[in-house]
Amino acid sequence: MTEQDRPRVPRGQARDRIVAAATDLFARLGYEATTTRQIVEAAQVTKGALYHWFSSKEELLTSIYRELLAEQTARLETIAAADGPADVRLHRAVSDLFAHMDEHAEPLTVWARSMHLVAGEHAAAVRAERRRYQHLFQDLVEEGQKAGAFRPDVPASVITNTFLSSVVQIHRWFRSQGPLTRRELGEQMVSLFLDGVRGTALTPQLPEY
């Protein structure tokens, strides 16, 4: 079927089909190896429909991630603004982050593997939105430190960046065929993170002479 012969798809559906097709192709073939023609054919839309929604393949990739990041940020805002102790809310926040990652594993992995290829205004927009999530997370850690729930000897910025950086790197070593599911891995990382953040600083044991 040629592009001219394809039936017209409603605009909202066309965008969803383009995103779904691109996510699948980026995951299977890699972002660089995937062409816009392959995306159009897989989505069964016209090239005009693709460029109506996305000016480039780079914008398409960035849009997929920014929408998921916006979801994560909105969920964190809700958790952070809720009642209850800061340590309980931080537990909910990190658990929810891993739950969201489990629900959207494929597109988030695609982004993690391809984000170094994005530059210019698209990269700047992502950095700005990630900083918003980071600041919300850090504010919650600082609140817990002021309340005495978290160790005060490590700056909240170090705690935040260490944890979020480790999350970004999961795609480099996690294998779905391994002994743990993504959800089980998330539970273990949540436990390790919270155990490290709670309580007072540990005093190192010096050797006896």
Provide keyphrases for this structure:
209 residues; mainly alpha; Arc Repressor Mutant, subunit A; Tetracycline Repressor, domain 2; elongated; disordered C terminus; TetR family transcriptional regulator; repressor; Tet_transcr_reg_TetR-rel_C_sf
Description:
With 209 residues, the chain is mainly α. It folds into 2 domains: 3-53, Orthogonal Bundle (Arc Repressor Mutant, subunit A); 57-197, Tetracycline Repressor, domain 2 (Orthogonal Bundle). It contains 10 helices and no strands. The radius of gyration is 21 Å and the shape is elongated. The model is unreliable at 201-207 (pLDDT under 50).
SSE sequence, one letter per element: HHHHHHHHHH
Question: End-to-end span in angstroms?
Answer: 82 Å
State the secondary-structure class.
mainly alpha
CATH class of the largest domain: Mainly Alpha
Shape: elongated
What's the CATH superfamily of the largest domain, by name?
Tetracycline Repressor, domain 2
User: How can the largest sheet be summarized?
Assistant: none
Portion of residues within helices: over 70%
How much of the residues is beta strand, in percent? under 5%
And the CATH topology of the largest domain?
Tetracycline Repressor, domain 2
Per CATH, the architecture of the largest domain is Orthogonal Bundle
Number of helices: 10
Q: How many individual domains?
A: 2
- Record field, number of beta strands: 0
Mean pLDDT: 89
Q: Tell me the radius of gyration.
A: 21 Å
Unreliable stretches, pLDDT < 50, 5 or more residues?
A: 201-207
